[in-house]
Amino acid sequence: MKFPGRRQHKHYFPVEDKDPLTNQINRNSRLERSYIVGIDQTLVDIEAKVDNAFLEEFNLKRGMSQVIDDEVTHALYQRLKSEDLVDYEYAGGTIANTMHNYSVLADDRSVLLGVMSEDIKIGGYAYRFISNTSSRVDLNYLQPINGPIGRCFTLIDDTGERTFALNYGLINRLKPESIDEKLIAESSALVISSYLMRTEGEDTMTEAAIKAVECANEHGVPVVLTLGTKFLIEEDPKWWQDFVKKHVDILAMNEEEGLAISGFDDPLLAADAALDWVDLVICTAGAQGLFMAGYVDEEFKRATEHQLLPGKIPDFNRYEFSRAMRYKDCKNPIRAYTHTAPYMGGPESIKNTNGAGDGALSALLHDLCANVYHKLNVDNSSKHRQKALTYSSLSQISKYANRVSYEVLVQHSPRLSRGLPEREDSLEQAYWAL
Fold first, then answer.
1. With DSSP H G I counted as helix, E B as strand and the rest as coil, what are the percentages for the chain, rounded to 5?
2. Residues tagged in the binding site annotation
């Protein structure tokens, strides 16, 4: 487990320190490991540049997202390949991206649940998914299927307008019996997306996801939900509010999804409203940066040393140096918030917005899992006198998540190819202070 984020000063994280008496590592003691579990619709993202005539030929509505059948998918893909129009092909899926990014950042294990074609051909969709996923992501629990995984085409015309064509394949056929309850019960977090609840016909994904969520709830494992798309939430905000309040501990969203579920267009107010249902919220807001909201007990609150910020909640960042806690673990809970502006003002050129939110969430999960890892191995540390959800403060996690998002925005792939650089050549070290 790599320590999450970067710091200007040295933090005390002594799980692998040398024994002070023998001045060597105690080889008789083996470190306990922590891991996270994610459930996703396994698919491949295919990006290509086309003209309007191409879209019309395949009856695709410009600028819209639409589902296409297997026959159209095969013809579309063959046409793109034969005319050398494909720019990029990447493993996709919002939770799969998050699991990959987590494992790259933490250099540690995560587990992905979903389906995978049992007949894998070199160069095929399933092959590309596996070959573009970190070896630290455990794929051994994937359920084999006799058919294709999903394919999502992003077709970009001369004006930059994006048209999406999605073929689900058999990605929603994960069966409830494929959910290993022991695996989830012993994990540090269960991560799901709203897409898992959008199934129909013979699909069993929703049933499987609900089983996993209920198992996590039963064993006190934090359930993390990323809202995924505002369109799905807008269909029935009340249902999502009830689901989140009953099953979810940590909510990840962008400002549009925040508006859809809370009714507030201000990201800070949307995050504040979500605290009525969950313990911790992370909200990415494009050019505005990143907001976080959570709870801390009065006893453990820490006032910021930064300037107090104005907003719809005056001086909202007053306790941003606090570590987040579950509401139920607070004797006298108070709400704490933080905000981080885009890293370096944002990239000069954004190569791809897909995956930026997944990157931010992976940073939060890294910090959460590091807290569990530290507690497993240094249980008597004074740090764990506070029953916190996270290892770091809201302020530090926000900086870390913001930095990871930037790394995704400046590349074409929604997945990190490496962790953060060891040295920030273009950034003042003060960014990571406090």
1. 35, 20, 45
2. 40-45, 93-97, 198, 284-289, 357, 402
